[in-house]
Amino acid sequence: AAASGAEQHPLLSAESPSEPLELNAKLLALRQCIEWQREAARQFKSARADWKLPVVRGRLVSNVLDLFGSANPRKDGTPSPALHWRNTVVTFVGEPGVDEGGLTADLHSSF
C-alpha cells in the first residue's frame, strides 16, 4: 500500500514484481487512458486546432512557460485544459524548418 494510505490501482502496486509483461500491461493501460482523455477533449473546438509555438532557443524555457501560461485563458485566467491535447507545431525563431514531429521532439528534449 502507498505511504499516504490511498488506494492504488493493482497494476501500479509497488508490492507487485516488475515483470516485463506487467510493465507492458501498465504502459498499455496508461496509453489507453491518455487516448481516452484525448478523444474526450476533442469535443472542444479549441482542442482540435494546432497549437503554434514560436520559440527562441536562447529563451526556450521562459518562452514555453509564457506560452503555456497565456494560451486560451478561461475567464478566471487559467489555461484551458483542451489546450494540452492540441497537436503542437513548433518553430524556432530565426531558424528554417517545418515541424513534422522533429522540432516538437527537439523542444521537449531541450526543455
Structural class: mainly alpha
Number of helices: 4
Going across the biggest sheet, name each strand in turn.
1-2
Residues in β-strands, percent:
5-15%
* Cα-atom radius of gyration: 18 Å
Cα-to-Cα separation, first versus last residue: 34 Å
Instruction: Report low-confidence residues grouped into runs of 5 or more.
Output: none
Write a structural description.
With 111 residues, the protein is mostly helical. The protein has helices at residues 20-41, 45-48, 60-70, 102-110, and strands at residues 51-55, 88-92. A two-stranded parallel sheet has the order 1-2. Helix 3 links the parallel strand 1 and strand 2. The protein is globular and about 45 Å long. The relative contact order is 0.12. The mean pLDDT is 76.
